[in-house]
Each structure stands twice: as structure tokens, then as C-alpha cells.
Amino acid sequence: MSTFSSTDHTPRAFTLSDFDFDLPADLIAQHPAPERSSSRLLDGRKQPPVDRIFRELPSLLQAGDLLVFNDTQVIKARLFGSKDSGGQVEALVERVLPGTQEVWAHLRASKSPKPGSTVHFGDHASTKGFDAEVLGRCGPDGGLFHLRFPSDPLQLLASHGHVPLPPYITHEDSSEDERRYQTVFAKHPGAVAAPTAALHFDEQVLAALKVQGVNSASVTLHVGAGTFQPVRVDNIAEHKMHSEWFEVPQATVDAITQTKIQGGRVLAVGTTTLRALESAACAGELQAGSRDTDIFITPGFEFRVVDKLLTNFHLPKSTLMMLVSAFAGYDNVMALYQHAIHQRYRFFSYGDAMLLERSTGR
Prior knowledge:
CATH topology of the largest domain: QueA-like
Radius of gyration: 21 Å
Number of strands: 19
Shape: globular
CATH superfamily of the largest domain: QueA-like
CATH architecture of the largest domain: 3-Layer(aba) Sandwich
Largest sheet: 9 strands, mixed
Strand order of the largest sheet: 4-3-19-18-16-5-14-15-17
Structural class: alpha+beta
Helix content: 10-25%
Number of domains: 2
Strand content: 25-35%
């Protein structure tokens, strides 16, 4: 694939190594900030960047701007159990199939369970739990397992599941994680990872935004475990993107249209919100509706909806590093990351945030 450098306007072919950087391990946040809005905020809209606190965000926006949130709710998607043979099983539910008792899940076991077999899920120290029937393999590449639960999967997960913390958070989930790995406006259950840029918002910040005259709208994108999937090919054009379900309501389309007409700016709260909005505009105009998306945003992508992006700091060589580089300019983003490392910002899901402006260069 090729894109353009912001300096010489000649085609530039990006490879995986272009999105790598050295990150000290102690900058990977293992716990959230004491208060949601006490996180740091790197204002990267102009150079040089400005180091701020997240609760300053309302003062950085103007009346008539529109914040679009992802109102998905993280489910307790991680389950521990055993096979009839006694072998241990760990499951991560990727998707609850609407209107059924069935789910798609990642399973880790010494030997994969066969179709027709049973897996017993429950806490390690308890005999209480439930049995799930293995229906077979599923998913785009057959990498998931199709399971049937005995009753409503969301209720069973709420009773027996664990918070699906990302792989780089090393502690077991706790009551703190149940509260803080969830946004204050989470509404529609289905995500197995949090829309992390939205974790910084609390009721005080939301109230200040309203006083400032900043409007809000929402989309729903159920974040999948594929968001942590590493890119394993040097030619990033060969990477197969994971698929996630999203919905953009007509009310949000109307709010965005009105904002643009009145000269306001659309700020996507998080990369998941941006992916939903730009997916819904792939045909040219923003359209309401719901479907799956496997959109892969890399430098050279033409953004149609989002003007500003609020985002956390992402993993080296990740698809999200490619997305933010496409949005705010590769050289600019890499410089911001070096600034963040030097100033010891906290990285990843429980880390700090960054405010970006869409690059006008190609």
C-alpha cells in the first residue's frame, strides 16, 4: 500500500516497523487514575503539544461542537471451567448472538473440545456454574467456538464471568475493575474490551461540557478481542482486520449533519467511535444503520466525518497506531508519542489521553 508524506507529496510505502517504538514497561498503566478526570491529557492539536489534565477538556472545545461517544457496555466475558475429562478451559466470549442462547468464544485448553461435548463453567473454588454445549467451530477463519448456553448468556456472564482485562494488565480482575473498566454512560451490553478514551469522563466533566454548549451523540460498537490482535505481516496491506458490530442511530446522523451546517466540529471519543462513523460513511455520505465492519484505517485514508479525535496511547505496531497516524499525520503522531514517553504519560487502557486534530496534509 502507499500513501503520501506530509512534506514532499511523494508516495510513501509504510511497513509494520514504521509503527514501532520503544516503550518502558513501567509506563503501561496497571490501574486507573484515582479519579477518572484526573488523568493527564496531551493536547496534540498544534506543535508544540501542551500537557494538560483531562478535566480541562471542556475549555478546549467550543459551543456547537459535537462529542460522539460509544455507549457499548463491557460484559464479564471471561469464563473459567473444565471439560468432562477434567482439563481446564478458559473462554473469552467474543459475541453474544442476538435472540439466542448461543455465543462465539475463544477457548484455551490443552486439547480443543469436540462438537457435541460439554464444558462446565464456574469459579475455581465453587461447584456452582453452568454447562455449555460445544456446537462446533465458527468465525471468519474458524478460530472461534460456537457454544450454546442453558439460558440467557448475558445473565450467566454477569453471574459467573470475569472482567476481560487486556493481556498487558497483569492482575486478576477486582471490584475496582468492575467499576472503572466501564464508562459512566455504558448502555448496550456486548463489548469484550472498553472504549478506553471514554473512561476518563465523569459526571462533572459531562456537566461542564453541557454548560460550555458542547453537544453530544452516541454510536454503539461492540469492541471485540480482535482489537488486541497483533499485526504479523510487514506489508500492512496484507493484514486481515477483525470484524465488529456497530450501529449509528439516525439521531446521531442528524446531529452530525446539523453540526457541520452550523460550522461546529465533530469530535470522536475514541478510535471505536471513529471506526463506526467512518464505516457508516464509506459509501460517501453518513448513513444510519447497523452492520459488521472490518474497516482498516491506515495512512492515506480519506476521513469524511470526524474532525477531532480523543484517544488513549496505543500499542506499538498496532492497527490503532496506524489509525491515529492516518488521522493526525504519521510524523506528528510519532513525535507526540516520543513526547509522551519523555514526559512519562501512562499508556494503554488505563492510561492517559491525547487530543488530536485531523491532518489536512496528504
